[in-house]
Amino acid sequence: MAKLILSMDGLVLKEIALTKERTTIGRKPHNDIQIDNLAVSGEHAVIVTILQDSFLEDLGSTNGTVVNGQPIKKHFLQNNDIVELGKYKLKYVNETPAGQAKAADFEKTMVLRPGSMRPAPAAPAPAAAAPAAPVATAAAAGTKNFGDTVAGGQSATAAPVAASKPAAAPQKNAALQLLSGANAGKELDLTKPLTTLGKPGVQVAVITRRPQGFFITHVEGASFPVVNGKTLDAQAHSLNDHDVIELAGVKMEFFLKT
Amino acid sequence: MTLSGALEVASCTDPGMVRSHNEDSIASDGDRGLVVLADGMGGYNAGEVASGMATTVIITELQQLLEKKVPYEIDAHSGKLVAHQLLHEQVAKANTSIYQAAQSQPQYAGMGTTLVVALFYDNKVTVAHIGDSRLYRLRGDELRQVTKDHSLLQEQIDSGVITPQQARQSQNKNLVTRALGIDPIVEAEIHDYDTQPGDIYLLCSDGLCDMVSDDDIGLALQTLSSNLKLCAQHLVQTANDNGGRDNISVILVRVLRDYPAPRSIVGKMMSWFK
User: How far is the alpha carbon of A36 from chain B, nearest alpha carbon, in Å?
Assistant: First the structure.
């Protein structure tokens, strides 16, 4: 259940639970949240709540409505946003108290029935956890250059930044240095989640970048990649600093960047 | 009529890092060009029952019917494409089975499931879906989400209440507006799309697309297309690396060659020799 904490000059005045679809804010007494101050308009703003989401809208007030320092007309409220009306502050709180929500309830798909749109006090609807919400991006339109294969020494360009966020520790950076062939000496940064190596149709391996580190896996071809002189099998193989990889006739060194 | 050699299929399903049970269900028959995916919900682990019923009913019934019926023909009674007629009927059958089970057994009360079915024939694919499990298509280097979710968020986006950007921050995720087994009658959304050799189709439950960005999905499909099984495993692994907060299922279908329907007598005879 989301709520607002009303304060002025750092002094908490009251807490208001957002139980209604429309929670009005203003100076006139009919408002759900009445703020008796001349800097606040008669009908200043409204918060529209749809299940677990709340939207703040300014109702054409004289002095405007500010969220986190920015004047807004309409704003999708996020946990800990601070709304300012005149000298008053309203802090929007919408988080699951630790220990109450079970991990298995997160991300549970549920059917929305007609008539169930009223925000319920006992939350049968899934309450999301703290910040690291997964990102489901909208459909990608138009051409995208997802990745480049290193074939015969072509260098890859950096791909668009992926929006997926692992919750783990910051990942190390790594690169490959080509030790043989026409492009010997050239470096290839391993910035993407997947970097392919080799010649399509002949021998291809992929280096995956994961929270646990970097791994090399055989993708296609009769021959398997060789790491430090040993031929790999079909399983993913963890890469260590200064490992020497051989495939499609090219030798390269994997190294971690500090 | 068999499509063997025209399609390559690989799939993977995983309970994820948080859930103890896998309530997703997947099934495929590459030779018949048929793939099904369902994400179950509701009750106490009854989601498993609902999704299992959905995939079993649909795949076994369609496998039998496709022995005699020809998907690209027009059904004399309804005037509809046989493919549409078949999917419409089998979805209704699955819905009735799940609905009745849910009504009759207290431990199944409230169970339901999403559904995505793809039937490949005559150089095209007919897709039927209910809920927020998705079908994507990679063609060249463009990844496109083909199905539109039947969810609260999608409706809000469609009516301009929120932007796709805001939808990502919404706490109303995973609320579907349509599902199998919840109402006595339900309609699947059914569309046809032309296919081309080289296309890769991805059916997935929201356990994948909620944990992995479209960019990362596209990168995986493009990079690992020559090893479809590895690609499916990689997608599941990435979802788990990113938290794995739900069951994850993926089915990949790669179109290897044209598969036109044999319409002429000679064509029909040739297909007997395949």
Answer: 31
C-alpha A233/C-alpha A223 separation (Å) is 10
Residues B87-107 pLDDT 10s: 999 999 999 999 999 999 999
Question: CB-based contact (8 Å) between A131 and chain B?
Answer: no
To test the contact with chain A by mutation, choose from B142, B176, B202, B223 the residue with the greatest count of A C-beta atoms within 10 A, namely B223
pLDDT digits (tens, 9 = 90+) for B29-59: 999 999 999 999 987 779 999 999 999 999 9
Alpha-carbon distance of A75 to B216, in angstroms, equals 29
Q: Is A169 on the interface with B (CB under 8 A)?
A: no
User: Which is nearest to B165 in space by CA: A72, A79, A164, A137?
Assistant: A137
Residues facing residue A125 across a β-bridge: none
Q: Which two tokens stand for residue A52?
A: 């677990």
Element containing residue A23 per DSSP (H, E): strand A22-26
Chain A neighbors of B207, CB-CB under 8 A: 107
Q: Which residues pair with A220 in a beta bridge?
A: A204
Question: Pseudo-torsion of CA A109, A110, A114, A117, nearest 10°?
Answer: -90
* The pLDDT of residue A100: 41
Both tokens assigned to A108? 């549970």
What's the per-residue H, E or C state across B112-179? EECEEEEEEECCEEEEEEECCCEEEEEECCEEEECCCCCEHHHHHHHCCCCCHHHHHHCCCCCEECCC
Residue A89 contacts B where some CB pair is shorter than 8 Å = no
B149, B175, B178, B254, best to mutate vs chain A, most A CBs in 10 Å: B175
- Residue (of A153, A156, A155, A205) closest to A184 by Cα position: A153
CB contact under 8 A, A164 and B170: no
Asked if B79 contacts B47 with a C-beta cutoff of 8 angstroms, the reply is no
- Cα(B261)–Cα(B176) distance, rounded to whole angstroms? 36
Q: What are the residues whose beta carbons fall under 8 Å from the beta carbon of A14, sequence distance 6 or more?
A: A5, A6
Band (pLDDT 50/70/90 cuts) for residue B272 is: low
Handedness of CA A203, A204, A205, A207 (dihedral sign): positive
Residue B211: band (very low, low, confident or very high) from pLDDT cuts 50, 70, 90:
very high
- Compute φ and ψ for B110, nearest 5 degrees: 80, 0
Whether B169 sits inside 8 A of A76 (CB atoms) is yes
